[in-house]
Amino acid sequence: MQMTKSEIGYRWTVRIVAILGVIVAAGAAFATGPMLIHGHPAYLILLAAAFVISVTVGVRSWRLPASRKSASWGRRVVQGMLIGASVLMIAVIAWLVPSTAEAPALAAMTSDRTVTVTENSTEIVLKPTGPESPVGVFFQPGARFDARAYSAILRPLAEAGHLVVITKQPFGIAFLSTGAFAAARAEHHPVTRWVVGGHSLGGLVVTPLVGWWRPRTLKRMPCPIVIQSSGCYFLPPIQQRISVT
């Protein structure tokens, strides 16, 4: 049965969007690299789901037989909304590609006789091997930054005897990790007091923990974190809101 022009246009639109989804998902996975394993698993799951769905939809668009009747107005509206939502999701996937940590920070992720470094799907922990201070450090990364990128600047605190926890945020967005500090406090009971800090959006998210209007200490710290984003460079100084809680 011969398809109508509108159905042909719809199917080719679906095919193009599906191909775009496959390309963007695969490209984002390649650009993210090892952080797919070392970061929060949410982005990996999203990329895998987008890839599988795009392949499935693309294949089905070629195999489905021609419709016996033209689509109704309501069905066309739904189809248009689905295509629009798919394009938006593909754009979000591309935007979420994170900045990956480079050699100086990655070198700080190695355990030695002074600091033990452990990581899981939700956090990086730098634990001093010697006497441990009752004051720990909790840090929220900036948006779409590799949590490992902060290990170099925070490791000296661990070497000085402080437990350091760097959270891994879902999709690299601190607003999706607002409960991370409570989880860290519950997990690391030997620590009785905490210093909290963050970079960029991460600093904004930890601000309510110390009080927006009355932070006990407001410091400007240099941030020599080397990341990969159109080449190697050093981030400019960033404002940190730090407080003992």
UniProtKB/TrEMBL annotation:
Pfam families: Abhydrolase_5. The chain crosses the membrane at residues 12-36, 42-59, 80-97, 194-213. GO terms for molecular function: hydrolase activity. Keywords: Membrane, Transmembrane, Transmembrane helix. It comes from the Bacteria. Gene3D superfamilies: alpha/beta hydrolase. InterPro entries: AB_hydrolase_5 (IPR029059), AB_hydrolase_fold (IPR029058). The keyword Translocase does not apply. Signal peptide: none annotated. This is Alpha/beta hydrolase fold-5 domain-containing protein. It comes from Alpinimonas psychrophila.
